[in-house]
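Chapter review: from sequence to fold.
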Amino acid sequence: MLTLQYGMNSKVDENWLAARYPYLRAVVIEGAEAIEHHGWKWWKHQQQDLSQLQMELIDIWHFMLSEMLLDCEGDIEQAAGSLMDAVESHTADSLVFDGQSYRIGDLDLIGKLELLIGTSVSRRIEIGLFAAIMRDCQMDWDDLFRQYVGKNVLNFFRQDNGYKQGSYRKNWSGREDNEHLVEILAELNARDDHFQEQLYQALEIRYQVID
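The token string follows.
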């Protein structure tokens, strides 16, 4: 995933390491969007959209990976080692932030997302907290990988079709491309050696029939 993220960042800007974009700021925004998909308005009925909530987590993961790569000056092997160490040591169920200790297991999903937003504002990467959010969203690391690869392909597709220039159309036949991606992922086998190519082709077919 780190290799794919390095490639995506280079596609957007070949000088992305020198530019040092505020990737954790993007985590803050995506975290708020995740809360929207969960539903938080106590004064009206809302229905949780789990598939889109999961997709927001994938977006968050893109930016967390990017920040990890920045911290390691683009060294993928070093970033991978740091990430694996963090994954293996995230068993602690508590986190200290802004002078207060939080028991992650005692927080509901929105509470966890709010804490992720707070730590991201403070330029902290909290893998254990992210893993707890994944579990609440019915995802494990294999699910994360499958959906990450899917969104990475979509991001390349967007760039190839004018996303940075402003000519890309994000809504296809009345729905966002993320929604189409979720449907396509359900139809494909992520273990297939040609998974990425098949996904890209399926996106092309749907994009060609935009209303």
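Two observations follow directly from the output. The chain is about 65% helix and 5% strand. The radius of gyration is 18 Å.
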